[in-house]
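hi! just following up on the protien thing from before. the input was this:
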Amino acid sequence: MRYVVGVDLGGTKTAAGVVAVDGSVLLTEQIPTLNRDGGEAILDATAALIASLIERAAAVGAIVEAVGVGSAGVINAAEGTVISATDAIVGWTGTPITAGLTARLGLPSAVVNDVHAHALGEAWHGAGKGASTALMVAFGTGVGGSFVINGQPVLGAHFVGGHVGHFASPLAIHGGTALPCSCGHEGHVEAIASGPAIHAAYLRNGGSASLPDTRAVFDSARAGDDLALSVIAIAAAAAGQAVGGLINILDPAVVVVSGGLADAGELWWDAMEAALRAELLAPLAAVPVVRASLGNKAAIVGAASLVLDH
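and the predicted 3d structure came back as:
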């Protein structure tokens, strides 16, 4: 059996696992991401995490031969570097991930953006397993996605493919003005359909500031809060419209929806799927739309697939 390490390197935590060629996960470990300490410190800590897993795997007879990484930021997968990143990870832009890890560990490595890694995991061994094409869209702190064709994510000419939160939504408006988006533009899907956008909409429309976050807005909605129900319905409709439009463009065999909102229950899911179905062209009416199934292992498995000929 062949083994590699898959790494999910995010803004707050870095998780890694030893993954077999059949997609099974043998061992996992997790550390906080040193997101204030710069790229070299993060690579040092990540290499130490991987080395620990390699040692543990060797103890049970599993020899690790390569490392795959799903990383936060816009990633040049060809060069293995970070093109750009938000200030969630200070000093991450420009970091040579693959060269840095290979120098530290002596193993070949590969890297893509973490959302693409998530989608690769779901397409290989999750909710999209067996489909020739899979569209994965994640709704959580942000909105992202990936289109996987025969096990390969569409990265784009500038490695920006998958930023599905950043096109216009007719619902991303308040008082006649387009809502500001995290990317610096206005009126985008993420500005109305992300988790933080739901909380912001609740406060913007007069909701109580005693509700500290999106989870509290959902709790209030389940208790009968009409405003909370309304802002969730609008956000879910915006999410569904966006995904429905993408389905019309890409014609995927399956659609996998993930993220914190997808896991928030029927309150969000039913409204999202109703809006999605209302957008679809007639030949696409029966496209399956399913929840992601691998949970926090998806990006680890997907990152591992980068360096496994499966």
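The radius of gyration is 20 Å.
The first helix runs from residue 39 to 59.
cheers
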